TrEMBL record:
Alphabetized Gene3D superfamilies for the sequence: Aldolase class I
Entry keywords, A to Z: Cytoplasm, Lyase, Schiff base
Pathway(s) per entry: Carbohydrate degradation; 2-deoxy-D-ribose 1-phosphate degradation; D-glyceraldehyde 3-phosphate and acetaldehyde from 2-deoxy-alpha-D-ribose 1-phosphate: step 2/2
Keyword Zinc-finger: no
PANTHER family named among the record's database cross-references: DEOXYRIBOSE-PHOSPHATE ALDOLASE
Family annotation (SMART domains): DeoC
Coiled coil spans: none
A GO BP annotation: 2-deoxyribose 1-phosphate catabolic process
GO-annotated molecular function: deoxyribose-phosphate aldolase activity
Gene for this chain: deoC
Protein name: Deoxyribose-phosphate aldolase
Family: Belongs to the DeoC/FbaB aldolase family. DeoC type 1 subfamily.
Amino acid sequence: MNDAERREIAGIIDHTLLKPEATRDDVEALVREAVELATYSVCVSPSMLPLSAPAAGLKVAAVCGFPSGKHTSAIKAAEARESVERGADEIDMVIDVGAAREKRFADVEADIRAVREAVPSPTVLKVIIESAVLDDDEIVAVCRAAVAAGADFVKTSTGFHPAGGATEHAVRLMRETVGDALGVKASGGVRTLDDARRMIAAGASRLGVSGSRALLADTTPAGAASSSY
């Protein structure tokens, strides 16, 4: 990997720490590493906000309704609003995946819209659809709901579901559905440089990565377990 490619990939990484056992010291280390690696952002749990020393130019993302998506829309909206008040630039919300599986796409759209109204632009809203749990028709319908509700990104996965994380097929289908209207974030299992290249080629414009240093150094063995996200 040449320096230009490394900078390009680093520049679309949300450097992520969502482990339940994460401490404030861990998050401070995450921020320092993000600055060193020149990633686009850090992505953390809402309870970790505000960051004690956010770096100039480094975006801050927080998750919402994470990881189950089974919170009510009112709770998700309140959580998102509080996170923005505490310094988040971006919100990664989880849909009610069960509603999508039941084909209640109007309810999915309403859920997304509630969060969008709570955190209007310029806050960036990413919608986690847990693509490994959905069939293709459901992925398409949920992506259309995200577009209609005013989201900025659709995102493959929490990285915490046993069904798995991002796949090239899901990313490609999501990109085909949203076109240029929304970004597509691949997360969950993006561990190696080859993973990153494949997701970008499939249409990803953002990557959720916990092991960013190893990925950018191209030192992570294929098949290595990811510690989170």
